[in-house]
Amino acid sequence: MAVTEPVAPAVVKPTTTNDPQSIADQIKAKYPDAVESLSAQGIVIRRDRLPDVARFLRDSPALSFDYLNNLTSVDYPDRFEVVYHLSSISRGGAPIALKVNVNRENPTVSSLVPVYRGADFQEREVYDMMGIRFAGHPNLRRILMWEGFEGYPLRKNYHEPYYEEEHKPFGTRWDQGHHVIAEDRNPWHDNVQYPPDLDATTYKPPRDEIRTAGIENVSVTKLRTDKIVLNIGPQHPSTHGVLRLKTTIDGETIVAVEPVLGYLHRNHEKIGERNTFLQNMPYTDRLDYFTSMANNHAYAIAVEKLMGVKVPERAEYIRVIMVELTRVIAHMSLLGFLYNDLGAFYTPLLYGLEERELVLDLFESVAGSRMMCNYMRFGGVARDLPEGWLDRCQYLVDERLPRVLDEMGNYLIGNEVFRARTKNVGILPRDLAINYSTAGPVLRGSGVKYDVRRAEPYSIYDRFDFDIPVGTNGDVYDRFMMRFWETQQSLRILKQALKQIPAGEIMTGKKNYQVRVPKGEAYGRGENPKGELGFYLVSDGSPNPYRYHVRAPSFINLGTLNEMAVGHKIADLIVILGSYDVVMGEVDR
Amino acid sequence: MAELTKPEPIVLVNSEEEWLEEQVRRSVWVTSWDKVIDLVDKLYNWGRRNSVWPMGFGLACCAIEMICTSASRFDISRFGMELFRASPRQADLMIVAGTVTKKMVPSIVRLYNQMAEPKYVLAMGACATAGGPFKEGYNVVSGVDKFLPVDVYVPGCPPTPQALLYGLMQLQAKIDHQSIRDVRWYKSGEADGIPEPVLGPDIFDPRRAEEINDLTAHPEKLQARALKIQTKLEHKAEKLAEEKKEAASKPAAAAPKPPEPPKT
Fold it and tell me: Which of A193, A208, A263 to substitute to test the interface with B, most B CBs within 10 Å?
């Protein structure tokens, strides 16, 4: 079957940045008492006016802020601040920041789930990590930690069991060769701490709650049958890691799915706030471990926004080449992984992995590591390309990868069984995809032409000629095809970048372990293979970030699982989950 | 051309007893019990070492390198280990590939208990070995060996497929040296599983429940422990300071240069 090219592009023109002043004026015109203050960092909204303002911003045709990029909170000494980043799908441009101040004694904000359903998981995360309650949230429970855990870890006064000092670098742990291991510093001799009233012999953990609200009304069959709760995971070959799905089924038909997360919660943000800015770079590798180069890039963009550094030409090209190579291998592997979930075990995946190995060799020769590249620095990249690297890359991009991609397309896309299993399965309509804040191929598969590379062009993406493919149905088949088309577009970008790459510097200024980051805050984002990966950083001028938040695309995409899977069979659930391409390192962080 | 061997001389037997003796000498192999067990061990271990079936059980980043190890380039099936079983009941080896979090560890212990003997555990990567870069996190277990007996540790973050293959070869070497005389799964008595840790206000091992109760009920004991650690550290620091002073007072030639602290 001939692989159809995506519809001809109507390139979304990068618009001017959304000006906070004019937006604040428009809010004031509607709600005179709503705006507390205004700065370049964002618009501070009165707490009780938040849902009104959000609804106004979303529904007003002139503003149409219909997309909630990011929701997080910051713990200041005198207050909590909940931060919302909003942007408009049709206009593009940098997101604006709305802020709400919450007092520390009784931290409550009204929930934005009725306005932006994508707020669901993010609000739960804020509640879990910082203990801020969201009034009116349908399901406000812990999401990353378990129910019954003591404390709110991201508050500044929460100390881990192995707590040493507030900021790194610590005074040397290696005092003249005498090393004290962390276990020896803790009175329990382990990474634990208990409240004084714990009785360990009689302790009963709280019962695992099954969400049943609303399930009773759903009737998928005419037969009156009992519903069964089936646990898929956390150890299951098809959950792409340690994801657990609490599935309520009626016969074989799914009535409700609830993802249970946190089995790989590695405390990325808490550790990140203690690290220096540069020390976080290798941690971002481990977010989405398929795409470490792209993670590096997004993080470097966020910090460079704060620092105001200009990246040299050659370094920009090297970055784009690395990120696009990452996109190619991540998507090619997904083509195989989805077939894995369909039951064609391992054979199609082997084709993807074979090409991945070749690209990993390129990464290894330039960064020193296959997967965890830790390659980008603020203001450039760590090392220049070794001799002959570009030729090897050129061969892959010009000859090998397009050939293999076409071959994979020929035998994977036309497959009759594949089409039967994926067409009209797991449909996500366009408006729901936007409202749920999905990103990347999931969003574009639903027909939304939104790509951060075009909406808010970063790095040098405005120089390249490439299309943003979109799906039509928003089903699994479309999301699969998105990966295929995007790989073709990435190869297009790669060809141009390899042709244009100039010689020159790879780093602005000299290499520096301790970068000076001025006071301020920034939300930097990049188009990862999985979607929009954003970093929200608050710097207080010290060597460590005051707040370090990751907007993980897979995490927010997973919020739509229930929407897609209800009414399908269990076997389809696995395929639908596979079409997200979730990576748990990023979901749980 | 090989030389023709001489035909065996025909033995003439005089009596039936003699004949029987001769037959026994010819066809029955008399040996010691130990030698027989050694032979059985060799056969058992040969079979086991070349068909270690790992459990398809990935936790984090290391799982991707595990997948690469089983893919065409590194090809784990050269060792007879390509069969990744989804069920713990069919698996011999648990490759703990990734960060072990507190929320996950009850499931890991349950999976280990469900595996049939003989079973082995390979801790792949820095996280599974000791917590790795995430060690200081509040939700991270400092190494899976806090709960499970680990046979092989593979360092790296993540270990390359070559490193994992080397670890598996070390496991094979370990299997080679096992004997049915002393392995735990042929001992009499019912083997108890490892009790599952409980997720309370923080994770705790039921085996340590009494100690925990004792310490939470008597905060002064906990304080004493903390104080002991503190004094130990201070004592160490004082000692180091004294040594430093002494070294400074002595002529410079005598004092060896202290090792450089690793730079971040």
Answer: A263
Suggest the residue from A130, A164, A231, A235 to mutate for an interface test with chain B (most B CBs closer than 10 A).
Answer: A235
Look up residue A567 and give its amino acid: G
Q: Is B64 on the interface with A (CB under 8 A)?
A: yes
Q: How far is CA B119 from CA A236, A266, B48, in A?
A: 20, 28, 11
Contact B229 A370 (CB under 8 A): no
Chain B closest CA to A3's CA: distance in Å?
27
Which residues lie below 8 Å from residue A522, measured CB to CB, with a gap of 6+?
A302, A303, A305, A306, A536, A537
User: Measuring CA to CA, which residue among B107, B112, B102, B104 is closest to residue B142?
Assistant: B102
d(CA A281, CA A513): 11
| Out of B146, B158, B200, closest to residue A148 by CB | B200
Strand partners, A42: A39
Is B255 exposed, middle or buried (CB count within 10 Å of its CB: 0-12, 13-18, 19+)?
middle
Q: Is there a contact between B60 and A201 if contact means CB atoms under 8 Å apart?
A: no
C-alpha A229/C-alpha A247 separation (Å) is 6
Test the B interface: residue of A145, A265, A356, A511 with most B CBs within 10 Å: A265
Q: Do residues A253 and A493 lie in contact, with contact meaning Cβ atoms separated by under 8 Å?
A: no
Q: A185 and B229 in contact by Cβ < 8 A? A: yes
Nearest-CA distance from B255 to chain A in Å?
13
Question: CA distances (Å), A263 to each of A14, A260, B95, B151, in order?
Answer: 39, 8, 17, 24
d(CA A307, CA A305): 6
Residue A254's contacts (CB-CB under 8 Å, 6 or more residues apart) are: A247, A248, A565, A566, A567, A568, A569, A570, A572, A573
- What ipTM describes this predicted complex? 0.87
B168 to chain A, closest Cα gap in Å: 20
The residue ranges of DSSP E strands in A111-163, in sequence order, are: 133-135
Q: How many interchain CB pairs under 8 A, A with B?
A: 201
Q: What is the dihedral of CA A300, A304, A305, A307, to 10 degrees?
A: 150
Tokens read off for A179: 């090393």
B114/A contact by beta carbon, under 8 A? no
Per-residue pLDDT of chain A (589 residues; tens, 9 = 90+): 444 444 444 444 444 457 888 888 888 888 888 888 888 788 899 888 888 888 888 888 888 888 999 999 999 998 899 999 999 888 888 888 999 999 888 899 999 998 998 899 999 999 999 989 999 888 888 889 888 888 899 998 898 888 877 887 776 665 555 667 778 778 788 888 888 877 878 888 777 766 654 555 555 556 666 778 888 878 887 777 788 888 888 888 888 888 888 899 999 899 999 888 988 999 999 988 889 999 999 999 999 988 888 889 999 999 999 999 999 999 998 888 888 888 888 888 888 898 999 999 999 999 888 888 889 988 888 888 999 999 999 999 999 999 999 998 888 888 888 889 888 888 999 989 999 999 989 999 998 989 898 888 888 898 889 989 998 988 999 999 999 999 999 999 999 999 998 888 888 877 777 888 888 889 999 999 998 999 999 998 888 899 999 999 999 999 898 888 888 888 899 899 988 888 888 898 8
- How many Å lie between the alpha carbon of A501 and the closest alpha carbon of chain B? 31
A482 Cβ partners below 8 Å, 6+ apart? A441, A444, A445, A469, A470, A471
Q: Could you say which residues from 19 to 38 on chain B have a Cβ atom under 8 Å away from some Cβ of chain A?
A: none
Residue with tokens 């042709």: A499
| Residue B55 DSSP symbol | B
Please say whether the beta carbons of A296 and A373 come within 8 A. yes
